[in-house]
Fold this sequence. Notes:
Helices cover 29% and strands 19% of the residues. The chain has helices spanning 2-27, 52-59, 71-74, 102-107, 120-130, 166-176, 203-226, 241-245, 247-260, 335-347, 366-382, 490-496, and strands at 62-66, 77-78, 81-82, 134-140, 180-186, 232-236, 265-266, 291-295, 310-314, 350-356, 400-405, 408-413, 421-427, 432-439, 445-451, 460-466, 477-485.
Amino acid sequence: MKKTVNSIAAILLLISSCIDMHAQSWTGPKEKPKERVDLKYGPLNPGKRTDADMQRFREYGLGQFIHWGVYAIAGGEWNGVKAPTASEWIRVWSGNTAPPNWQQTYDNLYKQFNPKNFDAKRWARQAKQMGARYMIITTKHHDGFCLWPSKYTGYTIAQTPYKKDIVKQLVDAYTAEGIDVYLYFSIIDWNNKDYRTSAPQTEQEKESYNRFLTFTRNQLFELINNYPKMKGFWFDGTWDKSWIGAYQYTYQLEKDLRAAHPGLIIGSRFRNDEHGKRHFDSNGDLLGDYEQGWERKLPAKYEWLNGNDWDCVMTIPPNGWGYIKDWSQFYTKTSYDLIDMLMQSVSMGGNFVLNFGPDGNGQMHTGEDKLAEEIGDWMKWNSEAVYGVTHAPLEPSPYGYYTQKGNTLYLTVFNRPVNNQIRIKIPRAATQIPTGASLLASKTPLKMKFTDIGIDLDKNVYFDISIPADFISKDPFVIKVDTKTGKINTKELEKAHM
Length: 498
Ligand code: H79
């Protein structure tokens, strides 16, 4: 018996240490190296950017991602058989379930790409209604297919029956709606014969990979030159040994791209230092303007972010970014799930970017249309708690998420307490003191009182806000708390009978 208990304990320990290991490897706290090393290929702009473009990025709150390419024609399946890969990875489908000659079929799909219902303005209006402040479009995913008529490859939209430049239409339509456009670009390119994953060894391999690097550089400058209204690049597929080894080239490339497009925003997924350290260099310093590591996962703790800017890109299905025809095969996130993630992100100083995978005709999935509308309806009343806010220096609330803007504190309530009393916990040493509360959407004033729980060693004080019992909301709601600069004077607060 004792032995069984011991082995169960050992298994639990093993499981928890695996979870910890996982947390540290990707989504967990970053350990800062103990000693600094001299780096030639570290960050180009050390420290936080303070310019207007970066400030704009910081204030977006909500973004839209769009994965669109020839994989949209397949929609995650072929002839009714579901592919075991992520929908935008369907080209790599192999094994028993794969259709015969699948890669060849895939590589010819572009000849059918003719999205008759595509209307960039309609997408932009929808994104605007949802409340997105920036949009990221896949100009080229791993398959190498370009949504713009690149002159450096024949595998582009220009060779499809559709012909017209999709990137241009999107940049124009979204920019006209006041939504900033970022260009997703995959370094991995399965269509280019000079692309390789391992580091080149022989002279011939080096020559070939250098051709690929030049090709990549040409495409990036082509994008900047063709679409000068774009605000930044969202890079992907930068983890292969070949790219990691090209750190001198990528350092110079980043420098040149920034010089060619002042204000350009590039995340931490573009390049690594000379020791192969990605996202954060060998000194633990951020490479690029913001941390671009949060993909389908959110940080659990604000402290993990070290005050860096960041974004989190999120799918509606569990995985799969390109169009997936059949949503019934898995749980898809609801607007409650997504608004929760949005508020968690902005409460930690990040942007939340929701992915859409339109179909081969240029229509969003009906499930996406529904979610965009629901999120938009919520944002219409509550976006004040989303745009331009920062992390509030308070302990996380059990009821939801705090955000802050100037003298206003917002609490977005997801977990309404059964006693209808919302307790705000403020450090005794705080310099921002609550003075009143209301419901953001209706402006209804709420009763708030300072709660004297006697003198003890507690370093916090409490303000209790009453939610009227007859206030019924099926949606999360925002409590707006006005504050003023001052000091907590418990005696005075007691007298004030707030
Ligand atoms: O476009 C969507 C996906 O198709 C793409 N990124 C999003 C936005 C994507 N491609 N691959 N992946 C996501 C997952 C890749 C995971 C791994 Fe790795 C690459 C595991 C091992 C190599 C990067 C490096 C993550 C862990 C180590």
